[in-house]
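Let's see one such:

===
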Amino acid sequence: MGEMPPRCILFAPFLYEERAIGVVELGSFTEFTPAQTQFLEKALENIGIAFMTAQARARVNELYAKRASSPKVAGAGRRIAFHQRRT
């Protein structure tokens, strides 16, 4: 927005399973139209889902990295693979 402050500021929470998980802040030089606020409401539903999906994926990757770096688990995986080849 540069050096000019916005005329209108809109704060809107995004939810996941009826729980607020974040807030979107939008600034504008003009008032938000009903169509714009309706669009934002619909978009916020998808933002909440995408945000939680990204967090879950990051957690899965973190757990996978921990498991893959564990010597005990890595050895067990090789034994299972070896056993499966022999049968």
Remarks:
- The mean pLDDT is 84.
- Helices lie at 34-69, 71-86.
- Residues 8-86 form one domain.
- The beta strands are 8-16, 19-28.
